[in-house]
Each structure stands twice: as structure tokens, then as C-alpha cells.
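Box S1 | Example of a co-folding query
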Amino acid sequence: MKFFSIILSSYVAAVSAHMSMVYPLARGHPHNPNAAVKDYDCITAPLTSSSLIQSGNCARKFFPCGGYPMDTKITQVFYAGDVVDVKFWTPSLPDGPQPGSESASQARHNGGLCEFSLSYDGGKTYTVIATYNQTCPDIFFDWKVKIPDAAPSCDDPGKCIFSWSWINAIGNRELYQNCADIKLVGSNLAKPLPIIDITRANIPPEFPNIITPPGDPANTGNTKGSGPSSSDVSANMALNIGTVTNTSTTKVVENKKKKYSTLIIGCVIGGGGLVIVIIALVIFYMGRRRNTQNERRLSENSAQCNNEPGSANISSESKPAHSVI
Ligand SMILES: [Cu+2]
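Box S1 (continued) | Returned holo structure for copper (II) ion
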């Protein structure tokens, strides 16, 4: 027994015993059958800044995703609207939580701030889809994360990522991140999710903000904590991120069509009306012209009549030129 515990303690000492995401399976995770590399020693280590060559015994872990290559095969498929029960793993309890192991160290640093996010571009931009304050992470609990109903599909290997990032409550100021390669089946009518960035801190000079989030109120240090708070769970489940452009778009298109057809009908009616008005004007003008011509002809005739002898002199004053001296 003593021998076993010596072996166990040396194993624990050899690895960087912090936390990692085991469901969904992260890139580089020793349990991930499709991991391009399996990092037994340092999957749980924090990210490091460019000013450091390595972190403890671990090689430098770049942002994003610790610099691990994408999985060789993408087999983890999630659907829009799914509630994912995220699970964590720590090398000090390699077989997961066991009865009686609640007081074992998970190196969870009394929790802190966990953010779960989706990235559609391989970890450049993020949409945080769930936040757990104070008590996360902890291998003894599942952490519910809802894939937004309006999440668009993502089937571009290496680009579609389910990310867990963590800022620890106690200990060195650190930022942890694990990324799972996933395929996402969503609505084809969904718009790209809005950018809701993860908290980028604690790795200067890349992320110079130094943040210490509040920790688990149970203050259990590295052992089992109080788990996800009901207020965090309900807030995460109530999130409604993104938009699906189904009925509203169709309606907009229909309305546009309606508008255009009304406009066309209006134009036709208007145009027809204009033609009728023009024809009426032409008829009216022709009629008037004819009347004028008739009148002129009549007056010419009557003038001729006046000049003839014996005819009644209607207005002798108006014709002085004709008076004979
Ligand atoms: Cu640590």
C-alpha cells in the first residue's frame, strides 16, 4: 500500500495536475482516441505568454487551444438546442470521481470563472454560450451548457470548436483553455452567432489584464466544491443567442413581392389613366379646333354677307374704311 502510494504520488508530481475538459473530449487529451498528440503531462497546464518559454515542466502552451493540432477525425457531433453535460478530468483522479475521493486534490484552485464558448474560425473569435461563476471547474459535477437554438451549422474540420476557458480563483494568475473539435448541426437559416468574447486575461503581454475572480463560497480549495449554482444553471439555460431568419425573412420577401406587385398594378392603372386623360384631351382639343374653324368660317361668311349691298349694317362704326366719301 505504501509502495503504491509512493508510485501514485510520483505520478502526480510528474504531471501538471490541474483540470481539463474530458467531455467533450479536448484536443491533446490523453483520453481522446482522435487526438493528433496525447499530452499526458501537460493537458491540464495553463496557457503561457510569449514572454515564457515553458510553464513548469510543460512546453509553452499557446493561445488559442494550447497550440494543440486539430483531431485526426471529427466524431463529436452536437445539434443546435442540445444541452451538453460538460465533464472535467484531473490526472490526480484519473478514473474520475470515486466514492470517498471527495477530499482528493483536483488542483481546481477553489474554482473561479469558467466560460464555455463556440468558435467557428478555429479559436480566433468566440461566442460565450455559458458562464459558471465561482464554483467551476470540479470533476464531481456536470456543467450544463446549451448549444443555442439559433446556432448555425459548422462542418469545417479544425474550425468548429467547443471551448472551455477558466480563470482560477486562487494561486498564480492563470488562464486555462481546452478546445474540443466538433461538428455542429444547426439551422441553415441561422445567421452567424454574435461575437461574445471570452475573458482574455492573465497572460501578459498577449492578455495584460490581471483578473482574480471570486472563488467557491464553500472555500474547499482543491477538493470537491459546491457545484454549479442554480442561478448560473438557469441563467445559462435561459440564454437565447443568435437569430434564425426563417419566417421573418420569408415574410420580408413576401412583403417585398407584395409591395412590388402593388407598385406595378399601380403603375399600370396610373399609366392607363394617363392614356385615357391624354386621349380625352386630344378629343377635346380636336373638338375645340373644329368648333373654332366652324366659327371662323361662319364669321367669314357673315362678314361677306355684311359687305354685300342690301345687307343689314350691323356695326357701321366698326368699318370706317368702307365708308364711301
Ligand atoms: Cu495551478
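The pocket of copper (II) ion is lined by residues 18, 107, 109, 171 (CB under 6 Å). DSSP finds three helices and eleven strands in the chain.
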